[in-house]
Write a structure and sequence with these properties.
By secondary structure, the chain is of the alpha/beta class. It has 2 domains: 1-35; 42-343, Purple Acid Phosphatase, chain A, domain 2. The chain contains 8 helices and 15 strands. It has helices spanning 2-34, 66-79, 102-120, 131-134, 147-157, 199-209, 212-215, 245-254; strands at 47-51, 83-86, 124-127, 167-173, 177-182, 185-189, 219-223, 259-262, 268-273, 276-281, 300-307, 310-318, 323-324, 333-336, 339-343. Strands 4-5-6-7-8-10-9-15-14 form a 9-stranded mixed sheet. A hairpin with a 4-residue loop joins strand 12 (310-318) and strand 13. Helix 3 (102-120) packs parallel to helix 5.
């Protein structure tokens, strides 16, 4: 009898051990399932860029959506680009109700969340200013309606510690209108924080694109916040795109510009318009693309450039994963405010 009891106890312990082992395996499997997959890392080009903007929160916000931290982690730990382009709306200004000290506080928050990790990783970055960063809109007297935002943005970006790894070409008006070179890539940054690019600004753009560093570069890009065309629901109207966009496009093409990078529309699309490549960068908390029933999505762009021969590959990621954006519903063309843009073969989905 004692032997039978002992066997029963041993059997009970065995069944308990098996149950614990099964629970442990299930917990490990559940944990593995719950963990997000690491972001994909496509074949690398001679130069790799990340394009990521429009991630500001509500007016005056000092916090960023979780997608921003995930994207910065992917940039630093996985993608390791040569350059990060930030096409504007990086902080949450454009409000007269905010106190003066809120603007430098927002740039300090941006630095903590985005810029400082890039600097620590030795990754160069460059920004154009959006309407929420430093709007160029004028008041009735002709002054800047959001002068406090522009002053705070200038103070932040003119700090020498916030410039990493770029060869400045024309920096007299940095951070509003300036240009730089990174190896074989030349980038002109346009103050497109409002819809008007006046004649003086167009003349500056012609001059910087005609400079020896631009003319000897293999590839020339221009970056500004507002786009040339409307492509997103709610942004497909006057005031949400650049004024006299067709003439500005022709100016860029005559100067040998390959791509215009923009934000503001908060919808991703890589397209071509009249011989100019357009990269609408998307952002966090996207808008619906015109002509599609697909839901809005957040997007960050990975651009790999080969130079011999020239080969540009654009991979779009949803920073909620981050997972690759591959949507068969994306239209072959988007016909919005200002004209129709056709999908670029550079977008790899």
């Amino acid at each position: 009898m004692r032997g039978a009891v002992a066997f029963a106890r041993r059997g009970s312990r065995t069944r308990w051990s098996i149950a614990c082992w099964a629970i442990g395996v299930a917990c490990i499997a559940a944990t593995a399932i719950a963990q997000p997959a690491p972001p994909l890392d496509p074949p690398r080009g001679d130069v790799r860029l990340v394009v990521f903007g429009d991630f500001n929160g509500p007016y005056g916000s000092l916090d960023y959506p979780a997608a921003v931290a995930r994207t910065v982690a992917a940039i630093v730990d996985v993608w390791r680009p040569d350059l990060v382009l930030l096409p504007g709306d990086l902080v949450a200004g454009q409000s007269g109700a905010l106190p003066d000290d809120r603007f430098p506080a927002m740039w300090a928050a941006f630095d903590l969340a985005v810029a400082a990790p890039l600097r620590e990783a030795g990754i160069a970055y460059a920004a154009t200013l959006g309407n929420h960063d430093a709007s160029k809109l004028r008041d009735a007297e002709g002054g800047f309606a959001f002068a406090r935002e522009r002053e705070a943005a200038a103070a932040y970006w003119r700090d020498p510690g916030h410039l990493v790894g770029l060869e400045l070409v024309d920096a007299d008006d940095r951070p509003f209108a300036w240009s730089f070179r990174l190896g074989p890539l030349f980038v002109a940054v346009l103050d497109a924080s409002g819809p008007v690019i006046d004649e003086a600004e167009r003349a500056w753009l012609r001059a910087t694109l005609d400079s020896p560093p631009a003319r000897t570069a293999t590839l020339r890009w221009v970056m500004g916040h507002l786009p040339l065309l409307g492509i997103a629901e709610g942004r497909d109207r006057e005031g949400e795109v650049l004024w006299r966009a067709e003439a500005l496009r022709d100016l860029m093409r005559e100067a040998g510009v390959d791509t215009y990078v923009s934000g503001h529309q908060a919808a991703f699309y890589a397209g071509r318009w009249g011989g100019l490549e357009l990269l609408f960068a998307g952002g966090v908390g996207g808008r619906r693309l015109l002509g599609t029933a697909a839901p809005p999505r957040s997007v960050v762009n990975l651009v790999d450039i080969g130079f011999e021969p020239l080969d540009v590959r654009i991979t779009a990621f949803d920073p909620a994963g981050p997972t690759r954006v591959a949507d068969p519903e994306v239209p072959a063309a988007v016909d919005g405010w200002g004209g129709a843009v056709t999908r670029s073969p550079r977008w790899i989905d």
